[in-house]
Amino acid sequence: RAAAEALAIHPGDAVFRIRNLLRFGGAPAIVDDITLPALRFAGLTERRFRERRSTIYNLYEEAFGLSVVRTRERLRSTRADAASASLLGVAAASPLLQIRRVALGYRDAPIEYRVSLVNTERHEYFAETGRE
Fold first, then answer.
1. Residue 41 in 3-state DSSP?
2. Quick check: 96 and 118 in contact, CB under 8 A?
3. Fewer CB within 10 Å, N- or C-terminus of the chain?
4. With 80 as the cut, is the pLDDT of residue 49 above it?
5. Distance from the Cα of residue 33 to its chain's centroid
6. Is the Cα dihedral 87, 89, 93, 94 positive or negative?
7. What is the 3-state secondary structure (H, E, C) of 51-119?
């Protein structure tokens, strides 16, 4: 429901759901759960996503003509559930930073809804979006 609202689509509309694990120095640090409206990403496959040449946002622009020009984020603390704990290599109920992000294109058209869980034990979160 939150994803549908953030993406300005109807609950039940087709979406792609992607779980993306980011590592820093070989250690898992961030688990992203990404939701994309299927109508805007026709032709997206797991292989295409995995074999992208650059960033996820670059894939959106090059393959689908969707430019992320700004984001909106909400941050809060949370605890690791069993799945995220396993992926991040932490104990269940460990503290994590949760980031809920809506990536927006021109005219504030929503492109992506992302919920990230960040293990901040060895890293801090820093974000800079938009163009100078």
1. helix
2. yes
3. C
4. yes
5. 5
6. negative
7. CCCCCHHHHHHHHHCCCCCEEEEEEEEEECCHHHHHHHCCCCCCEEEEEEEEEECHHHCEEEEEEEEEC
Indicate if the pLDDT at residue 2 is higher than 70: yes
Contact criterion met (CB below 8 Å) for 91 and 121:
no
3-state SS, 105-118, equals CHHHCEEEEEEEEE
Please give the single-letter amino acid code of residue 24. F
Look at the block and give the residue holding tokens 């984020």. Answer: 73
How far apart are the C-alpha atoms of 100 and 107, rounded to whole Å? 20
Q: What per-residue string of b and e applies to 82-101 under the rule 16 or more CB within 10 Å gives b?
A: eebbebbebeeeeebbebbb
**Three-state DSSP class for 22?**
strand
Residues 6+ apart with CB under 8 A from 42: none
8 A C-beta contact, residue 77 and residue 98: yes
Rounded to 5°, angle at Cα 35 from 7 and 117: 115
Does the pLDDT value for residue 36 go beyond 80? yes
**What are the tokens at 93?**
């109920």
